[in-house]
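WARN no homologs supplied; continuing
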Amino acid sequence: MLRLYEVGHWSFEGRLALTGQNDSWSANISWEHSPETEKIKLSGPMGQGAVVISLTGNVVTIDRGGDDVRSSAQPEEFINQQLGMFVPVRSLRYWVVGLPEPSLAYNDTDAGFNQAGWLNEYKQMQIVGDGAMPHKITVMNNKVKLKLIIDHWVLNDTKTN
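OK structure emitted
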């Protein structure tokens, strides 16, 4: 059985839809995780309009290409300003692999769990190596709804389609 808290490196490729009270958008997403860094690339069709979000420790950097690179020591607030809606990136790094954030209380539900005011539902799973990983995820609160479809997982050295 796969022990996800022990998986130090993982990545995935997929599609993301984000809906807030005043705005919504969708993007292709590529996320690379290591114990030290999160690297999230969001792009439109054919890779156009790519934005790379890097989170190392308490510093987030958003690179929109060219000379448009901005950093902040307040990651979630900064990402909120840039996206126009709040996305809990620190918790999301756990939620995308199907786990509650270990430092916060949570309650199980039939399809996932509630944590920090966010409902996490795992609509569909896929076989990856010796275990199952999320394929379709919905994360929502009363202001934001995030839908994620993960097409390809890489766990350490295991890749799936």
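The chain has a mean pLDDT of 89.
OK
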